[in-house]
Amino acid sequence: MSSVLLTSDRLILRDFKMSDLSGVHRYASDPEVTRFMEWGPNTIDESRDFIRMAISFQKDKPRRHFDLAIVTKPDNCLIGGCGLYITSPHSREAFIGYCLRKDSWGKGYATEVAKRLLAFGFKELALHRIFATCDTDNVASARVLEKVGMQLEGRLRENKRISNKWRDSLLYAILEHEWKPKS
Questions:
Q1: Statement: the pTM of the whole predicted model exceeds 0.70
Q2: What is the CATH number of the domain that holds 46?
Q3: Structure confidence by residue, pLDDT tens digits, 1-20
Q4: Band of residue 182 on the pLDDT scale cut at 50, 70, 90
């Protein structure tokens, strides 16, 4: 698969490019945005390294890592990043994630992104199972995963180290026959 360009009602999800550095750094350097992430807040060099890594994954054949910029229509403003990562090609399994600028919270963008990533995974990549995790304290992210039809499968105890502390995660998943595409 070559370059990726996914659209939804209000958003474009596209491959990252080096010119995205200031937009990426805006959300990746914000301590409030990254408080539930295993990375961040980023330095400018860390944001640049992330984009370089994302660009290098674009060349993989077959491609298994889809790091995508979240851009609003029609102003073409980068408001975050998201991704779909194939963990087992044989089992047709992947996980999704998303991270949005603070001024984009509460507008339904994360739900729109998650729905589009599920459609991409099931329709275009023929996946069987897609999962996601979120910190047990990240109520907003858990709500997004439930809104898009993912089911809570359990709690992963101390599976992430964030800010030098072990944190639990909630595990959500959806199977291809459970997914309901927009008609």
A1: yes
A2: 3.40.630.30
A3: 578 999 999 999 999 999 99
A4: low
Q: Range of 156's domain?
A: 5-175
- Round to whole Å and give the CA distance between 178 and 113: 18
- Map tokens 């890592």 to a residue: 65
Q: What's the pLDDT tens digit per position in 79-127? A: 999 999 999 999 999 999 999 999 999 999 999 999 999 999 999 999 9
Residue 75 neighbours by CB under 8 Å, 6+ apart: none
Considering the domain boundaries, does residue 16 fall inside one?
Answer: yes
Task: Report the C-alpha gap between 84 and 1 in whole angstroms.
Answer: 14
Q: Total domain count for the chain?
A: 1
Query: Please, how many CA atoms are within 13 Å of residue 64, restricted to the half-sphere of its CB?
Result: 9
Pairing status of strand 93-100 against strand 129-135: parallel
DSSP for 74-96, written as a single string: TT--EEEEEEEEEEETTTTEEEE
* Token duo for residue 167: 């944190």
pLDDT interval class at 74 (50, 70, 90): confident
Q: What burial class does residue 106 get, using C-beta atoms within 10 Å of its C-beta: 0-12 exposed, 13-18 middle, 19+ buried?
A: exposed
